[in-house]
Amino acid sequence: MIKAIKRTLFCSLLFFSIIFPTCKKPKPADTAIPADTLLPPEGSVTMFRGNQYHTFCGSGKVTRAPVLFWKFETGYILEGTKEKRGVDPKAVWRGIAWSGQPAIWGDTLIIGSSDSYLYCLNKNTGTIIWKYKCGHSIKCSPTIYKRKVYFGSRDNHLHCVDLADGSLVWKTLIGNDMDSSPCIINDTIYVGGEDHYIYCFTADRGKVIWKTKVAGSVESSVAVIDSVLYAGSSRGYLYCLSRVNGSVLWQFKTGSDTDVSPVVMGDTLYVGCEAGVFYCLDRHTGSVYWKYKAKGRVITTPALTNGRVYLGSGDGRIYCLTADSGKVIWKFRTDGGIWSSPCVSDSAIVVGSRSGKLYCLSIDGDLLWSFPTGANINATPLVVGGRIYCGSHDGFLYCLGDSVTVDR
């Protein structure tokens, strides 16, 4: 009897071992993204002004007869009573604000809007892929790094979302608005805040590595080279900080609000201020090589190419100066103040005006064309592959180009 039971039990175990093999804990799927897919595809522009020096100007042939490929409409929000920042609670936030420039990763375009959404679009068609809502308007230019999107908002947070679907990875609270556009190098974020701090965060979790208090709010986007970084402040200072610990190496008094994002070219640094003075400095010491006084405020980031500096001013003029001496080569008068930062590609300059027009000039200062929108253009245009992407306060992001390249 016992032998029979043992034989039956053995047969049963043999049966189940064949039908249901030994269970093992499932091996976790390898979720690591291959390193090569973390690199931006060719033709991508992943941060404000294209790189950590703010020297990218544009790429591709700029049309001489613009055709509207597509336009994408954003929404709007009201300021609201809870903000308590001295702004009319019924004030409407709409469109793409200063200094919003799109970021591009392959065929994907990312742009922040005053309506509190970060939008992901197909750059060829303007079709929406996803949108992410934060607590208030977005003024900065987003940065894409290792398939994550980083940006600040008037909700006092630095946000990190996934490029694939816009899902939140993390967000970090600071003490005020964040209009500065993040600069990311070697998994480290450098960015300014309107709470009077310049920050260094980890890119993976948004943890503070260091923060340095400065005089005034920082809307300027940080430029980085070697072991130092540069940013301006609202109290009229340009700062040079150590990347390692945030210590102030030197500071230069510009004399007024310095929202302009510095541009680094070799050993030289270019920056302007709201008093209308544009400076060329020794980036190592902050000593002045030359300065030029425009007729209006300067809050635009200059474009530097082929020994020339192109900058806009609140007096409605585009100035072309020699990069080595600040000598005026030409001036062009638009019909509105310039808050938009000029973009240069294919011997053409593209810049927006507060009159609502997008202008295209030759490098000799001649008008090639203008394109009307419905409100101020304070945003920064981007030229990639000959296509022009630019937002307006009328609530639209526009894509212009040459008729022969329109996708059918």
TrEMBL record:
Protein name, entry field: Pyrrolo-quinoline quinone repeat domain-containing protein
InterPro entries: PQQ_b-propeller_rpt, PQQ_rpt_dom, Quinoprotein_ADH-like_sf, WD40/YVTN_repeat-like_dom_sf
One family name in Pfam for this protein: Beta-prop_ACSF4
Top-level taxonomy: Bacteria, Bacteria division WOR-3
Organism listed in the record: candidate division WOR-3 bacterium RBG_13_43_14
Entries under SUPFAM superfamilies matching the protein: Quinoprotein alcohol dehydrogenase-like
Pyrrolo-quinoline quinone repeat domain sequence ranges: 91-171, 179-400
Coiled coil: none
Superkingdom per UniProt: Bacteria
